[in-house]
Amino acid sequence: MRIEEIIVVEGKDDTRRIQEVVDADTIETIGSAINEDILEQIEHAQETRGVIIFTDPDFSGEKIRKTIMEVVPDAQHAFLSRQLAAPKKRGNSLGVEHASDEAILEALEKVVTPVIESDDYQEIARQTLIEYGLIAGARAKERREKLGDELRIGYTNSKQLTKRLKMFRITEKELIEAMHNINDLPSEKSEESI
Fold first, then answer.
1. CA 75 – CA 193 distance, rounded (Å)
2. Are residue 36 and residue 106 in the same domain, yes or no?
3. What separation in angstroms does the CA of 5 have from each of 28, 46, 99, 127?
């Protein structure tokens, strides 16, 4: 499979792994300390061929994604779940380089593009996210991780969740469906109450 867009990854191991699976060009950010030259390369790549941001599903990967989005807000995104990016050897960090061929292909086939500001989007109320146990509660982190996998928007912390849902124009109906799919719907919140 040939990928037209240039895939933005964190390092050489990610490039090697992606090129084992698909025919693609990459730009490496060389970790989270992404510099101006690399950001300019990414910006130019977006103008000429488009880019797909495909970073690790961890804090550093999200930081890189956020930095790139400030420069290229219309970049496409590929996400791996933390489970699919888990290393085989204990002690290694999460990474694209640990994903199976199938996981990489699926992530690239299900690329998502954020929508730049829109007047017709109805933001999901913070109270709704609290009622679903996504922002507060004992298992909120686990629920957000499952939700990010289900909606293909990546893992977020509680502060990032509202912004990510808005960025990918996730509706309250889509949120409800996703919560049903992950079998984690709180009993006090049902479709009838919305």
1. 36
2. yes
3. 14, 8, 20, 38
Return the axis-axis angle of helices 172-181 and 140-151, rounded to nearest 10°.
110
Q: At what angle do helices 101-109 and 12-21 cross, to 10 degrees?
A: 90
Q: Which of 79, 114, 149 is the last residue of a domain?
A: 114
Cα(71)–Cα(43) distance, rounded to whole angstroms? 7
d(CA 194, CA 191): 5
- Using an 8 Å Cβ cutoff, are 43 and 71 in contact? yes
Q: List pLDDT tens digits, range 128-163.
A: 999 999 998 889 999 998 998 888 888 888 888 988
pLDDT in tens, 12-69: 999 999 999 999 999 999 878 899 999 999 999 999 999 999 999 888 998 999 899 9
- The torsion angles phi and psi of 18, rounded to 5 degrees, stand at -65, -40
155 and 123 in a single domain? The answer is yes
Q: Which structural domain range is residue 50 located in?
A: 1-114
Sheet-wide strand order for 51-53 = 26-28, 6-9, 51-53, 76-77
Read off the tokens for 113.
């593009």
Q: In the structure encoding, which two tokens stand for residue 6, read together?
A: 């240039």
Handedness of CA 92, 97, 101, 107 (dihedral sign): positive
Instruction: Tell me the whole-structure pTM to 2 decimals.
Output: 0.72
CATH number at residue 64: 3.40.1360.10
